[in-house]
């Protein structure tokens, strides 16, 4: 009976998130400074005769797609990092992976602006360095959750500081797209979409392929070792995927905190700890969260735009406290 | 299984084991006893390939254990550790299915044999009717049995148990020990365990290995080796050794 109930809960959660995702995405496409109806939009897309639809296609669509991917990749990155570190607080923003990635992409844009297309690669290296540092420094304490977070905060501060130093010493005007501390999704083009869609899709597919490994990591290293499972190899691969996801999101969309923390947390209480459901659910719910934040940000006080990351922080902080109060379920028993 | 001249230190370089030599006989129950910090769990960690000794080697079926491929070794020896964690919403059956991991690749499906072994392990540990329960909902004794069931599903000739009775009520302690005995008697498993209770060790083991400060003080048949002197040497406690016609040998601690 309980079994059936949790299955129903899982199914309903998925359906609700998918419906909301479609609805918000559609709403996002038709609202803003140019307003049209959904019918006009769809008709315009097929015929190509509506000028407004063409503008929306050039300006609003890239932004929507990037928001969706950023949300999906960051949430899944959070899920993976939490599995690898066995720590519900591990999140690319908190432990410095995003700021490492952001720092490298700023270096890139500042010193080698012609290598624009390789930004994701540089971001990935930056994210990987930050992750490696956190991992190394917390290894000795047996990846103690609290210690790891503290080290992450320090690494995060370091990279954020370095990035801001670079930006301010270069004059702030040249930082058109990339900001280390916040994110705006304005001024995005189809080029950006190509990058995030390509690497993001690869990362998301890879992360789904390793769902069983993520589940295995719910057991202790010793136990896994005696089951003949190569724990460190799995950790390494999952971490790489997590860093790839977070870096690509940061490189294209900038910094978003909380999404990698909130979504997996909600996901676990709705669909359980099995990564077979948790990873796809987090991807969908993460996309929903960021697209909602971005749509709110640009419609709530129009024509002023509030960056999605700021909306996220304002929703995220209180919500996290609410969640932590409500349930203290974390890994392990 | 042969344990040859094992010496071991953790990263702090303090030597925890000094030249350990022992033999684990097939089809028997061997129990390691000794005071806290004597190195018994460390020794168990070495013979289950969780730690690598600086000197000496452990030989299983004519081959040094760290030369086995991980899965190959996991098909030979199953281990129940002292502290275990699993995601709180995992069901007992799912947990026990983990025992089949050594026989699988990442994407290979469940076979009939997997199902048989899992069912057998659940029945053997009396958890068949609790297989859909979440681990969190089980009592301490049931949880311990679930972990043993996982090791049983591994279908290995060797089973290692690190303090399987600690933190359990006396009823559950004997429930576990009786299960261990049955596994040895009826299924021919070779069992190595760490126990705190000397009387339980005497009652259930074919061989006792008594350790102190990283060395083996004495090993052999409990009836032959357990004497007031040995227990005093190992634990610093004075005991009287009694023999009862029905109960066999037991000890009574009388002071320090």
How many domains of chain B? The number is 2
Q: Helix proportion of residues of chain B, in percent?
A: 25-40%
Mean pLDDT of chain B: 90
Bin the strand percentage of chain A.
under 5%
Q: What would the principal axes of the Cα set say about the shape of chain B? A: globular
**Which CATH class of the largest domain in chain B applies here?**
Alpha Beta
Q: Roughly how much helix do the residues of chain A carry, as a percent range?
A: over 70%
CATH homologous superfamily of chain A, by name?
A: ABC transporter involved in vitamin B12 uptake, BtuC
Q: How large is the count of helical segments of chain A?
A: 13
Using DSSP, what is the number of strands of chain B? 12
How much of the sequence of chain B is in beta strands? 25-35%
The name CATH uses for the topology of chain A is ABC transporter involved in vitamin B12 uptake, BtuC
CATH superfamily of the largest domain in chain B, called what? P-loop containing nucleotide triphosphate hydrolases
């Amino acid at each position: 009976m309980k079994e059936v109930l949790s299955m129903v809960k899982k199914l309903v959660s998925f359906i609700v998130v998918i419906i909301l995702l479609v609805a918000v995405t559609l709403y996002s496409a038709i609202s803003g400074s140019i307003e049209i109806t959904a019918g006009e939009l769809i008709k315009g897309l097929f015929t190509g005769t509506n000028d407004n639809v063409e503008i929306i296609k050039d300006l609003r669509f890239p932004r929507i797609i990037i928001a969706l991917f950023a949300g999906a990749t960051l949430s899944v990155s959070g899920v993976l990092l939490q599995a690898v570190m066995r720590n519900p607080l591990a999140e690319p923003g908190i432990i410095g992976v995003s700021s490492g990635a952001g720092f490298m992409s700023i270096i890139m844009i500042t010193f080698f602006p012609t290598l624009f297309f390789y930004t994701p690669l540089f971001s990935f290296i930056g994210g990987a360095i930050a992750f490696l540092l956190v991992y190394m420094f917390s290894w000795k304490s047996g990846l103690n959750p609290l210690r790891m977070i503290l080290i992450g905060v320090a690494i995060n501060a370091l990279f954020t500081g370095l990035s801001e130093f670079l930006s301010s010493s270069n004059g702030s005007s040249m930082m058109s797209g990339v900001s280390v501390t916040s994110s705006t999704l304005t001024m995005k083009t189809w080029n950006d979409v190509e990058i995030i869609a390509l690497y993001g899709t690869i990362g998301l597919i890879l992360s789904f392929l390793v769902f069983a490994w993520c589940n295995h990591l719910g057991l202790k290293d010793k136990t896994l070792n005696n089951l003949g499972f190569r724990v460190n190899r799995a950790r390494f691969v999952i971490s790489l995927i997590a860093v790839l996801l977070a870096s690509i999101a940061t490189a294209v969309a900038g910094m978003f905190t909380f999404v990698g923390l909130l979504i997996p947390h909600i996901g676990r209480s709705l669909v359980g700890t099995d990564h077979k459901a948790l990873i796809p659910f987090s991807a969908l719910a993460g996309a929903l969260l960021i697209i909602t934040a971005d749509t709110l940000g640009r419609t709530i006080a129009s024509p002023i735009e509030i960056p999605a990351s700021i909306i996220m922080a304002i929703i995220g902080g209180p919500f996290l406290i609410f969640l932590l109060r409500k349930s203290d379920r974390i890994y392990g028993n | 299984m042969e344990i040859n001249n094992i010496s071991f230190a953790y990263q702090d370089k303090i030597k925890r084991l000094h030249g350990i030599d022992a033999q684990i006989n097939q089809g028997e129950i061997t129990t390691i006893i000794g005071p806290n910090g004597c190195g018994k769990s460390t020794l168990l960690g070495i013979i289950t390939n969780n730690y690598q000794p600086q000197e000496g080697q452990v030989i299983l079926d004519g081959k040094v254990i760290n030369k086995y491929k991980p899965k190959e070794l996991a098909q030979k020896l199953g281990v129940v550790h002292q502290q275990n964690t699993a995601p709180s919403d995992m069901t007992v059956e799912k947990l026990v299915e983990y025992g089949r991991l050594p026989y699988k690749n990442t994407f290979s499906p469940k076979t009939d044999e997997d199902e048989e072994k899992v069912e057998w392990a659940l029945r053997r540990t009396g958890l068949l009717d609790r297989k859909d329960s979440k681990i969190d909902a089980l009592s301490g004794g049931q949880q311990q049995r679930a972990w043993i069931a996982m090791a049983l599903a591994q279908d290995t000739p060797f089973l290692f148990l690190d303090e399987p009775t600690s933190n359990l009520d006396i009823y559950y302690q004997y429930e576990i020990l009786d299960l261990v005995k049955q596994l040895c008697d009826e299924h021919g498993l070779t069992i190595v365990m760490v126990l705190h209770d000397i009387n339980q060790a005497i009652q259930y083991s074919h061989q006792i290995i008594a350790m102190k400060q990283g060395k083996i003080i004495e090993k052999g048949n409990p009836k032959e080796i357990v004497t007031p002197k040995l227990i005093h040497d190992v634990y610093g406690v004075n005991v009287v050794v009694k023999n009862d016609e029905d109960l066999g040998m037991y000890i009574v601690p009388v002071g320090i």
